[in-house]
Design a protein that fits this description.
Elements lengths: L1 H6 L8 H22 L6 H16 L6 H37 L5 H25 L6 H14 L1 H20 L1 H23 L2
Helix pairs in contact: 2-3, 2-8, 3-4, 3-5, 3-8, 4-5, 5-6, 5-8, 7-8
């Protein structure tokens, strides 16, 4: 796909503004698709992977729509649901840590802070792995590589943390906004991974 992106050319007669607005609209639509695909609760890694692939095709000016998204989602969810279960387990552990902090457990503040930072790091790693996913890829290998990139590329990782913060703030303000913003976070993950590859 990287070669396709490198060879991609803007559509003839289309202004940069029109291209940017079309990509923005595609991000919002992809956010809705991701939200629908993630309704299974453990399917959110596969949903982000399919969304990132869809946006990658859009950036490469390749054809692709709901059918391609659904096919990618079906391929990604075969093993991706295990990643989703692990994510919920990590969230449960951090919730217990936060409860320990609130109950005044000695050393609880340090354990809670480490737990929250680890959860944020895991979320960024998951986003980066989803952005790098392709059919036939091993989630274990993707997560290992994404973990290294999360540490080695702090600027990209902080960008994704900011994207996640926007989703949380949007959900706090209005839940429908958070749904649309999910696509923007997937686009940010694709951009961060592409930037890292070109370094």
């Amino acid at each position: 796909m990287t070669e396709a992106r490198a060879k991609a050319r803007p559509a003839p007669g289309e202004s940069r503004f029109a291209q940017g607005f079309a990509l923005f609209a595609e991000c919002l639509l992809t956010g809705v698709w991701i939200a629908v695909a993630a309704l299974g609760l453990v399917t959110y890694p596969a949903a982000f992977a399919a969304g990132a692939r869809h946006l990658g095709r859009r950036l490469a000016h390749e054809r692709g729509g709901w059918r391609e998204f659904a096919a990618d989602f079906r391929a990604a969810v075969r093993r991706g649901w295990l990643v989703g279960v692990a994510g919920w387990a990590a969230l449960a552990v951090v919730w217990v840590d936060v409860r320990a902090v609130r109950d005044g457990l000695p050393g609880g503040a340090a354990v809670g802070a480490v737990g929250v930072l680890a959860l944020i790091g895991a979320a960024v790693t998951g986003l980066r792995a989803a952005a790098a996913w392709h059919p036939g890829a091993s989630w274990r290998a993707l997560l290992a590589g994404a973990g290294r990139r999360t540490v080695l590329d702090p600027a990209g990782s902080f960008l994704l943390v900011g994207g996640l913060a926007v989703v949380v703030c949007s959900a706090w303000f209005s839940a429908p906004l958070a749904v649309a913003v999910l696509g923007a976070v997937a686009a940010a993950a694709v951009a961060v991974e592409e930037r890292y590859r070109r370094r």
